[in-house]
Structure formats: structure tokens, C-alpha cells
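Hello,

Our lab assistant flagged a job as stuck in the queue for most of the afternoon. It eventually completed. Since we weren't sure the result was trustworthy after the delay, we are filing this so someone can double-check. Below is the sequence as submitted and the structure that was eventually returned. Let us know if re-running is recommended.
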Amino acid sequence: MNISTIVFLLLSLMAVGSALMMIISKNPVHSVLWLILVFFAISGHYILLNAQFLAVVNIIVYAGAIMVLFLFVVMLMNLNADTEPIKNYRMQLVGICTGGTLLLLLVLITNRMDVEQLVETNAGNAGLIKNLGMVLFKQYVLPFEISSVLFLSAMIGAVVIGRKEEPIDQNPNS
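-- returned structure --
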């Protein structure tokens, strides 16, 4: 076994173990923290695939911004045992059956794949930021500019919607 295989297996064990702990944890804050660890393991997989840009974006966007948002929401909800819904064991059984079916499908698909050929075809400079920038600014410059104008209009719309309006004076004589 080479070093990349060992690192892949360790990252996979970390991701699966953290995902299981996220599901098992009784405390919602701990579940969010376990999910952050899952995102870091996935970012490690992106680095192994030579997709550094995706790894950094995954850490910044998901593990940074979205998980902090989740954490604040969970902490502001003030969850306790009195507000928890009653457990539905039939839904848990459906979830276990669905998850088991998904796991079975993934195992069957993985056994039919030629992993060595897949790794060889994806190796190289495919995930580097330089290549992404060249494609983005040469082939897709018009959609990139249109999306930037769309984001600008969305920000302006959010400011206009969020702005407080001055109350209209009903009696002009006073």
C-alpha cells in the first residue's frame, strides 16, 4: 500500500466515524461540531484528488460560514428535553432501511469499478485553480459577468427590502 492509499483510508474512516457520531450525538451542538469534522475529512479527499480549490472552498464555505450559522441557530433555539418531539420508531426503521439500501448500492457499484483506471484518468492538473481560472475567464466570461450582475442586483434588492420605511404623516396640517 502506498501513502496516498493509507491517507485515503484514514480520511474515509474519519469521515464515516464523524458522520456516525453526528447522527448518534444527543446534543445538537456536538452534532454540528462532528459535521464540521466530516467537512474537513471531505476536504482532505479533495486534496488527494488534486482539487485544491474545492478543498479550500469546502473549508471556507461549509466548515466556516454555514456551520457557524448552524451553530448559532441551534444555540439560539434553546433546545431542551421538554421541547423534543416524540420518537417515531417506524420512521427510524424506514431511515435504517433506506440507509442500508444506499450502502448496499454503493458497495455494489464500488465493486464493479476499476479504481486504478479511475485514478489514472483523473490524475494531473484537473483541479488546480489556474486551470479553473483559464476556463472561467476564456470560455465562460459572458456567463461569469452575467452572474456577477445578478449577484449585484440581488444585493441591492436585499438592501431595499431590508430598509425601514419612514412612517407617512397622515395629517399634513399638524
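-- support follow-up --
The delay was a queue issue, not a problem with the job. The result is valid. Residues 3-131 form a domain with the Four Helix Bundle (Hemerythrin (Met), subunit A) fold (CATH 1.20.120.1200). The chain has a mean pLDDT of 79.
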